[in-house]
Amino acid sequence: MLLSEIITKDSIIMELKHTDKDGVIKELVKHLHSLGLINDVDEFVKKIKEREDIESTGIGEGIALPHARGDVKKISVILGISKTGIDFKSIDGKPVHLVFLVAAPLDVKKEYLQVIAKIAKMLKTKNYKNELINAKNIDDVLNIIYSFDEKFPKEMEVKTKKGRSVFKEENK
């Protein structure tokens, strides 16, 4: 699955309105709802917050990857960008500029983890993170994602080792 198949023009918010973690999560989940991908905003916000209570998905370096599975119509990603930064209680304590909300149906585990792995790979590769933060418009964001998909079209293999997910590119 390519990121450009999941992150579309409709699933990108170029400037998040909120500057706090809870506000941003609710803003992204409401956007998911506005696209008809979930029925119950409050229930999905609760699922995301339950995951955040385990450990912040503010993974550092200006990135957050809140994610959950639940009553979702299909695997989805909402990308929110904040030029000013969000206090997301990240592990490095720094403001977050890119928030990728990943949502999936309960019965979709492998693809859900693959999407998270591909997003993580994109943000660790080349200058994709800075390019996304500095994108001027949605078309720029989409072009950056297309560029990543062209360079890394393979699926990410997901294996569980001692209760943790390990990601690597499949050699197909």
TrEMBL record:
KW Transport (keyword) present: yes
Entries under CDD domains matching the protein: PTS_IIA_fru
Pfam families registered for this protein in UniProt: PTS_EIIA_2
PROSITE patterns membership: PTS_EIIA_TYPE_2, PTS_EIIA_TYPE_2_HIS
Subcellular location: Cytoplasm
UniProt GO MF annotations: protein-N(PI)-phosphohistidine-sugar phosphotransferase activity
Protein's name in the database: PTS sugar transporter subunit IIA
